[in-house]
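Narrative of activities, Objective 1.

The group set out to show that a structural description can be obtained from nothing but a protein's sequence at a throughput compatible with the screening campaign. Below is one input-output pair from the validation batch, recorded exactly as produced.
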Amino acid sequence: MAVIVQATGLTKQVMSGDSPLVILHDVSFEVEAGESLAIIGASGSGKSTLLGLLAGLDMPSGGSVRLNDTDLFSLDEDGRARLRGELAGFVFQSFQLLPALNALENVMLPLELAGAKDARQRAVDSLHQVGLSARAHHLPKHLSGGEQQRVALARAFVTRPRILFADEPTGNLDAATGAQVIELMLELNRAQGTTLILVTHDEALARRCSKQLRLAAGKVQVGSH
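Output recorded for this entry:
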């Protein structure tokens, strides 16, 4: 399989008062198309920082990321946004649904931004896949946390992304609801052949992924099964 995500020597440091604080140090790994990678580690180990760098949402202090063989940080901000739009979907712990839009409109949004002519039908199909056809016209405030995260999954997968970035996708859900969302995410992932990169503190979820990358104090301890 082709390598779709490649991180080389990724380093991130910020100034903390007068002294530099190293959040990530010399992180290198690659993920092949269709693989799933769990980024795990204690709170404050640099997991979300790493995910932000892989998606080009943040700039590294050193090192590089190649997405689908494009050097992410050789692009300007608009170029990175364009590449994300072409390749990536996102699922966040806090759902990130727009409160004034109903479930269907939230799912349609990325397609409309991309100028897709069939946005409505594709969004209807995507909501059906996550079992929420009956809730299509409900606003986020009228949906449970699990339903909101399923809408977020429908929105992430509706563009058929080649890479899905997920940051603690079950962090705000109870165990049973979280387990349902994980099953759904992995099922959609398999069905579409997406590459999944997810940050989690859930060891059981991490073991469901084909690879694990463990961070400790910003450095990587690699293991996969």
